[in-house]
Specification:
- The protein is α+β, with helices and mostly antiparallel strands.
- The chain has 3 domains: 4-111, Acyl-CoA dehydrogenase/oxidase, N-terminal domain (Butyryl-Coa Dehydrogenase, subunit A, domain 1), CATH 1.10.540; 118-228, Butyryl-CoA Dehydrogenase, subunit A, domain 2; 233-380, Up-down Bundle (Butyryl-CoA Dehydrogenase, subunit A, domain 3).
- Helices cover 52% and strands 15% of the residues.
- The chain contains 11 helices and 10 strands.
- A hairpin with a 2-residue loop joins β9 (269-270) and β10 (273-274).
- It is globular.
- The two termini are 37 Å apart.
């Protein structure tokens, strides 16, 4: 567990930076869909890309509870910043948890530096939540594997140096390969075939990537020989942490929307009084604050259980489901409290409104989370 004082000091440092550098500049960068290079550089200087990588590999070795608090603060300033970290964290977790000793030594020390960034490639044009239907092929050829296929919704795809890619081998099993590439739109049979325009989550590329006869060495099969056919299990295990990230993002966006609504309600006057004095507005804010705190506590509970070594498939699913839906509702109510001003780009609340749906969809939709939750409830409470 991370020392409480160290964690609190780190969170306070990030909070001050978010308030000073991120909040005043986020909307301008977001509207221009511009990558926040200066913010990325500062995140890298803070050591955030190695936040949970063990100290033996040069990382900070923080626990997941502290990591969730960091994500919450980043998302409060601009949700896209937390997205830069998420796929990197998933990749590092997969290598730390399932990689061979050689793979850990080769990749994790470099991943402490955010300039050596990871992307995650599971989804395909015809395979999203139905991950088992993926079609990307990996065919052996001597001591290499030849990859062919198309991957969708790849965050960090252009700037990534490694991609955790899942492909189907000739024995019809799904295996994860660590694909090494140079940052950029094309590299040895890998190309960005489309940049996907989005409602929100701007400033960070989300792309479609095509693989045509790209070769990966045997040494880059995650887990070595033991990893053959275990790619989907490895990915779904790491996505539990991804769901904590999404839940923490949702809490951050919800906090930003709530803060904006509280501030506006006390500044805007109608009928000679601040609109906060109207009971209808008070009731809205009361419900928003309650949902926000419940989402935060569920997120921290899932993180704490992970740090204790417990299974968190149920807890991560519940936190992600509740927090993402709460963030969307809070952002919607915040926009309504702003009235016509909320529909303009002069107030940040419109950005929170556009960013919030991503958390409902990313890392498994709310409907998928309900299926996971129901299945795990049945496992834990089955009648003999």
């Amino acid at each position: 567990m991370t020392d409480t004082q160290i964690a609190d000091e780190m969170i306070e440092t990030i909070r001050r930076w978010v308030d000073k550098e991120v909040v005043p500049n986020a909307s301008e960068l977001e509207h221009a869909d511009e990558f926040p290079q200066a913010m990325f550089d500062q995140m890298n200087e803070f050591g955030l890309f190695g936040a949970t990588i063990p100290e033996e590999f040069g990382g900070l070795g923080l626990d997941v509870h502290t990591y969730a608090r960091i994500i919450e603060e980043l998302a409060r300033g601009w949700m896209s910043l937390s997205g830069i970290l998420n796929t990197h964290k998933i990749g590092a977790t997969m290598i730390e948890r399932y990689g061979t000793d050689e793979q850990k030594q080769r990749f994790l020390p470099r991943m402490v530096d955010g300039n050596y960034r990871a992307a995650f490639s599971l989804s395909e044009p015809d395979s999203g939540s139905d991950a088992a239907a993926l079609r990307c092929k990996a065919v052996p050829d001597g001591d290499t594997w030849i990859l062919n296929g198309t991957k969708m919704w790849v965050t960090n795809g252009v700037r990534a140096s490694i991609v955790m890619l899942l492909a189907r081998t000739p024995d019809d099993r799904i295996t994860c390969f660590i694909v090494e590439k140079e940052p950029g739109s094309s590299f040895e049979g890998i190309s960005v075939s489309k940049t996907i325009p989005k409602l929100g989550y701007k400033g960070l590329e989300t792309v479609e990537m095509a693989y045509v006869d790209h070769r990966v060495p045997d040494a880059n099969m995650l887990g070595g020989a033991d990893g053959m056919g275990n790619g989907l299990r490895y990915a779904l295990s790491a996505l539990e942490l991804g769901r904590i990230n999404i839940a923490a993002r949702a809490v951050g966006v919800g906090q930003a929307a709530f803060d904006a609504a509280m501030r506006y309600a006390q500044e805007r006057e109608t009928f000679g009084v601040p609109i906060f004095e109207h009971q209808a507005i008070q009731f809205q804010l009361a419900e928003m604050a309650t949902k926000l705190q419940a989402a935060r506590l569920m997120t921290y509970d899932a993180a704490d259980k992970y740090d204790r070594g417990d299974r968190i498939d149920l807890e991560a699913g519940r936190a992600k489901l509740f927090a993402s839906e709460a963030a969307f509702e809070i952002a919607s109510e915040a926009l309504r409290i702003h009235g016509g001003n909320g529909f303009t780009q002069e107030y940040d609340v419109e950005r929170y409104f556009r960013d919030s749906p991503l958390m409902i969809i990313g890392e498994g939709t709310s409907e998928i989370q309900k299926m996971v939750i129901a299945r795990k409830l049945h496992e834990r409470h089955a009648i003999d």
